[in-house]
Design brief:
binds magnesium ion, binds adenosine-5'-triphosphate, five-stranded mixed β-sheet, eight-stranded mixed β-sheet, 436 residues, disordered C terminus, alpha+beta
Length: 436
């Protein structure tokens, strides 16, 4: 029979890798909670018009990267990003009526039919957050600062922050006009895609990775000259906040990013080029003050970001403990297996991760398994031990072995495994317990 394989660009995450995923997800949840953000979960599938209206009809995402299909006459799309769904939920549940400011975070898979390469997949995971109801630059600086702390907690080297302002709608229109005037004489030198973009979405040309487009854009006017007084004051104020927080950043006047919904502040955080190559952007975000109203809600300003977990994994240098259990209960014989199951239950109640192997294997084979799972202690239960009401406690780290009553053995395991904070990374609430 032919073997079935995963869809191209969609990856399995096997248990050997999951410890690093957990560390990132927990660190993020904790960071967001420290800033008063709460988690929101929205569907993976949304009506297609949601993305067409927010991300923009003439963006790469909508033009060629969405997984879209018809179901019972309705066009549905696997979400390519998280902001549109969050804004839809915000409007749909009338959240603005219940609270003047809303802070949400999310985590989950996104889907884009891109050409798969290192750090770029067709199903990938994002961590993101949105602030609704705060139009000022203070929350923008807070969020950028929060992200730097988060990336630092993950030991990510070479982090750089780039910011820009796109201004409001009127600014964008005037800039668009100037850009078209600059690029029209250069039409023939543009890539095929960008020749089309010149008519549909000229700002996109600045985001092109094609060298011909980048050359043509070199002498183009930059948006800063077109900002109005309000845009300018907003951007200046953001810079003051960032300076006060001691944040190092660069203003990049050509930064536009791939989604149409942004207004005013835009930012990106990149990691070390050597590790990430072309996909060095770890986090992208910005302000989108008209999306809520565009989706039929009231005029509520918003600001948010998204980070790709796979890229954080590539960029980060932290390690997690790889052991699966703390103790292995090794029964020798079927009566011993019964005692072993009870003993393992007692240990788990005390927070000791353990496995009991009731397959009737030899002691040698069970010791091999203990080693493979990274157990520190092996509790050997044989007929003789049962008759005497004891177990043999073999400490693989200390190379020691003693016989003792079961209750005492439980205490010994707790002392050696929990008190020593062994395997702290794989415990469900480990990061929280350690950091709080
Ligand atoms: P890029 O310029 O690298 O294509 P983007 O501008 O499309 O990124 P956003 O849509 O803003 O990225 O998404 C935010 C973050 O999500 C990116 O910075 C990146 O970390 C991650 N990301 C985006 N697309 C992918 C993908 N196809 N595979 C893995 N991660 C991705
Ligand atoms: Mg992209």
């Amino acid at each position: 029979m032919t073997q079935l394989r995963a869809v191209k660009g969609m990856n399995d995450v096997l248990p050997d890798q999951i410890g690093r995923w957990h560390r990132i997800e927990r660190t993020f949840a904790r960071t967001m909670s420290l800033h008063g953000f709460r988690e929101v979960r929205t569907p993976f599938l949304e009506p297609t018009p949601l993305f067409v209206r927010t991300v923009g009809e003439t963006t790469d995402i909508v033009e060629k990267e969405m997984y879209t299909f018809e179901h019972h006459g309705e066009s549905l799309t696997l979400r390519p990003e998280g902001t549109a769904g969050a804004a839809r939920a915000y409007v749909e549940h009338n959240v603005h009526a219940a609270e003047p400011m809303t802070r949400w975070w999310y985590a989950g898979p996104m889907f884009r039919a891109e050409r798969p390469q290192r750090g770029r997949y067709r199903q990938f995971y994002q961590l993101g957050a949105e602030v609704f109801g705060d139009e000022g630059p203070g929350c923008e600086a807070e969020v950028i600062d929060l992200l730097l702390r988060f990336l630092q907690d993950l030991s990510i080297p070479g982090v750089r922050v780039v910011i820009n302002s796109l201004g409001g709608g009127a600014t964008r229109l005037r800039y668009r006009q100037a850009l078209v005037e600059h690029l029209t004489p250069l039409l023939d030198s543009l890539s095929h895609d960008s020749q089309r973009r010149l008519r549909t979405n000229p700002l996109r040309i600045l985001d092109s990775k094609d060298e011909r487009d980048q050359t043509a854009a070199l002498g183009a006017p930059t948006i800063d000259a077109f900002l109005d007084d309000g845009d300018r004051a907003h951007f200046e104020s953001l810079r003051k906040y960032l300076d006060a927080l001691g944040t190092t950043y660069t203003v990049e006047k050509r930064l536009v990013r791939g989604l149409d919904y942004y207004t005013r502040t835009l930012f990106e955080i990149t990691g070390a080029q050597e590790k990430l190559g072309a996909g060095s952007t770890l986090v992208g975000g910005g302000r989108y003050d008209s999306m809520v109203a565009d989706l039929g809600g009231p005029q509520v300003p918003a600001f948010g970001f998204a980070a790709g977990i796979e890229r954080l994994l590539i960029a980060s240098e932290f390690e997690v403990a790889s052991n699966v259990i703390d103790a292995l209960v090794a029964p020798l014989g079927s009566e011993a297996a019964t005692v072993g199951l009870g003993l393992a239950r007692d240990l788990r109640r005390e927070g000791i991760r353990c496995e009991v192997d009731t397959r009737g294997k030899s002691l040698r084979s069970q010791l091999r398994r203990a080693d493979a799972l990274g157990a520190r202690i092996v509790l050997i239960v044989g007929d003789k031990e049962i008759a005497e009401g004891v177990v043999q406690v073999k400490d693989l780290d200390a190379h020691s072995e003693e016989r003792m009553p079961i209750t005492q053995a439980v205490r010994v395991v707790i002392d050696r495994c929990v008190a020593a904070s062994r395997n702290v990374d794989s415990r469900p609430s480990a990061d929280f317990a350690r950091n709080s």
